[in-house]
Design brief:
Largest sheet: 3 strands, antiparallel
Oligomer: single chain
Number of strands: 3
Helix content: 55-70%
Number of domains: 1
């Protein structure tokens, strides 16, 4: 059975970024996560990580195609 939640260390490995960068994604709200356990360890739901990756693909496609994103046209 696949795991539902993974620690930030695994998120950083999957995205090939530093642990500090993974933590920054969570703290900024870009990557939803929860704190669990007595020590308050961050966990990311695998479906949320996949959604984040898909959003980044979509943003990159917009950037490469030269189309402005929604924020740029509304501001």
């Amino acid at each position: 059975m696949p795991r539902r939640f993974i620690p930030l260390t695994e998120v950083s490995e999957i995205l090939d970024i530093s642990s500090a960068q993974a933590y920054a994604l969570v703290r900024s709200g870009d990557l939803p996560a929860i704190k669990v356990g007595g020590r308050g360890q961050w966990r990311v739901e695998t479906s949320e990580l996949e959604s984040y990756i898909q959003r980044m693909y979509a943003e990159t496609r917009q950037l490469v195609s030269g189309r402005p994103d929604d924020d740029a046209t509304n501001g």
